[in-house]
């Protein structure tokens, strides 16, 4: 049986929860017992819309006490209630779907909410056996049949013919002789739950309109800046120190938005009407860095311009200079930079004349400067001069609440740029929310642009994502034969499509029909990319 881990999501736990079992044991990575996960606690998590939350929040440390009370009722009592007008009014007024079968699996009733959630009409299923609906592909599997077989409540994820995912919790109603008389299914739309979750997230965190946020003055160009709980203190502090000329050091991984913060500080400073210049110290050959920073006199070295060159410090005079990747600055140049920082004076390459500048200096790095100082790779005196005010910018994986607004922002931007009207499905957005984003915001923007320009349809789904992102679920390796076969089948189909390009050629290569491979692509969320 598949092992359950505390960091496993609720949705993943439901998909592998053994049928006919009320609770399972949960073990951590060290193999130590962590507690019990019950079917009841899983259903409670679904009711709260916590599909992506780790199950450690829902496990019990003590063994659950089994209820001695059964859902039993006499046949005449149930018939009297079920056939009453009040019962139909109550069931049809519920927001959740209700699906009722008899003890043999024949459909008796579905409410209006079930029709809305699934697109299935009552006349399509009433009087039909659940096994027939599975065979016809209307539903992927039946919770009612499993409940009848096991005589226990069952919760599972079901796929409807329109590819919507729903979560079904089936509860048996027993007769006085302990036989399953009816099965009452409660149905919730996972797609809808995810959409509602994203709407709630958007209410908590959306684009910060200039008129709605005191951090942003009018006409600053930061209308679409996304700020969450993790980054709000950063911009709050940036707003305060911008009014000074204190040296600022921005630390954080590549792509987290350090350049954006530097531009924001400049826009809020008294130098906002002056120039903002940016130089990446790691992107320039080491022997040219000094000339780029300080300029040079005519004839200073072979290949120098006849008239000489003004360095970036002189060009930024009166404004703000942002030196990115300062940790890559050669050690011998750090001495010269220190003089500029301390005295606002420097000499061009090949010159003996001191030049004075008035520059606000902001530096940034993805490296640990304190460690470089200990290793002797960065001057200690320069380090303390540069980090008068230090900003530690967290990576995007620690700012998950910002992912959805960022996706929406860049999707809108690239739709406008390429004259498209693309939208992402809730499942796709949820998938990307759980991705680790090692390249941070830069990677997110690049991915959205790629999806906008390469997909042939207006709706971007999980199957359109690159393979390396699609691998984020499931977190655990397949344990059962069925799971292993499904994973192998999916891998073979993807390889065949990559190699042969069309479904017809791939199907021929695999020895199956084209219609069969199309059905399997739908099953495994595989789509042909441009």
Automatic annotation (TrEMBL):
Gene3D superfamilies: 1.10.8.60, Homeodomain-like, P-loop containing nucleotide triphosphate hydrolases, PAS domain. One of its GO terms (molecular function) is ATP binding. One of its GO terms (biological process) is regulation of DNA-templated transcription. PANTHER family: C4-DICARBOXYLATE TRANSPORT TRANSCRIPTIONAL REGULATORY PROTEIN DCTD (PTHR32071:SF57), TRANSCRIPTIONAL REGULATORY PROTEIN (PTHR32071). This is HTH-type transcriptional regulatory protein TyrR. It comes from the Bacteria. It holds the Pfam family Sigma54_activat. Residues 234-453 form the Sigma-54 factor interaction domain. InterPro entries: AAA+_ATPase, AAA_lid_NorR, Homeodomain-like_sf, HTH_TyrR, P-loop_NTPase, PAS, PAS-assoc_C, PAS-like_dom_sf. Residues 83-135 form the PAS domain. Residues 150-202 form the PAC domain. Keywords: Aromatic hydrocarbons catabolism, ATP-binding, DNA-binding, Kinase, Nucleotide-binding, Transcription, Transcription regulation, Transferase. It comes from Aeribacillus pallidus. The keyword Transmembrane does not apply. The lineage of its organism: Bacteria, Bacillati, Bacillota, Bacilli, Bacillales. The keyword Transport does not apply.
């Amino acid at each position: 049986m598949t092992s359950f881990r505390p960091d496993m999501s609720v949705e993943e736990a439901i998909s592998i929860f053994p049928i006919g079992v009320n609770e399972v044991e949960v073990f951590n990575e060290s193999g130590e017992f962590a507690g019990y996960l019950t079917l009841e606690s899983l259903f409670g998590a679904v009711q709260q819309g916590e599909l992506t939350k780790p199950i450690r929040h829902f496990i019990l440390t003590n063994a659950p006490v089994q209820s001695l009370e059964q859902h039993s009722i006499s046949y005449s009592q149930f018939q009297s209630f079920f056939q009453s007008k009040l019962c139909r009014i109550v069931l049809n007024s519920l927001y959740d779907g209700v699906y009722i079968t008899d003890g043999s699996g024949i459909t008796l009733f579905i409410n209006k909410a079930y029709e809305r959630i699934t697109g299935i009409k009552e006349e399509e299923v009433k009087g039909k056996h659940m096994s027939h609906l599975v065979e016809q592909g209307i539903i992927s599997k039946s919770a009612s049949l499993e409940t009848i077989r096991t005589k226990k409540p069952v919760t599972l994820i079901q796929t409807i013919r329109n590819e919507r995912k729903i979560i079904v919790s089936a509860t048996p109603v027993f007769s006085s002789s302990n036989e399953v008389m009816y099965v009452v299914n409660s149905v919730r739309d996972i797609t809808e739950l995810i959409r509602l979750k994203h709407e709630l997230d958007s209410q908590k965190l959306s684009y910060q309109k200039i008129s709605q946020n005191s951090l942003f003055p009018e006409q600053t160009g930061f209308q679409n800046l996304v700020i969450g709980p993790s980054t709000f203190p950063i911009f709050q502090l940036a707003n305060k120190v911008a009014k000074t000329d204190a040296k600022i050091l921005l630390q954080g991984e590549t792509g987290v938005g350090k350049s954006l913060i530097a531009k924001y500080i400049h826009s809020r400073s008294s130098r906002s009407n002056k120039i903002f210049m940016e130089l990446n110290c790691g992107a320039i050959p080491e022997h040219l860095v000094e000339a780029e920073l300080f300029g040079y006199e005519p004839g200073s070295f072979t290949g120098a311009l006849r008239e000489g060159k003004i360095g970036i410090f002189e060009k930024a005079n009166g404004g703000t200079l942002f030196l990115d990747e300062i940790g890559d600055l050669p050690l011998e140049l750090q001495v010269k930079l220190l003089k500029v920082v301390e005295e606002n004076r420097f000499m061009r390459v090949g010159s003996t004349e001191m030049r004075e500048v008035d520059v606000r200096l902001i530096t940034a790095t993805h490296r640990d400067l304190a460690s470089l100082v200990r290793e002797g790779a960065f001057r200690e005196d320069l380090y303390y001069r540069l980090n008068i005010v230090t900003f530690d910018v967290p990576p995007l994986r620690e700012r998950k609440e910002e992912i959805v607004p960022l996706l929406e922002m860049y999707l809108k931007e690239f739709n406008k740029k390429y004259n498209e009207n693309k939208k992402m499905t809730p499942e796709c957005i949820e998938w990307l929310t759980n991705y680790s984003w090692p390249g941070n915001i830069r990677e997110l923007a690049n991915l959205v642009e790629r999806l906008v320009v390469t997909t042939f349809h207006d709706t971007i789904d999980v199957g359109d994502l690159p393979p390396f992102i699609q691998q984020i679920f499931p977190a655990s390796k397949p344990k059962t034969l069925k799971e292993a076969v499904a994973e192998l089948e999916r891998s073979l189909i993807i390889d065949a499509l990559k190699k042969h390009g069309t479904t017809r050629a791939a199907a021929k290569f695999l020895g199956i029909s084209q219609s069969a491979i199309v059905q399997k692509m739908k099953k495994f969320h595989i789509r042909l990319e441009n």
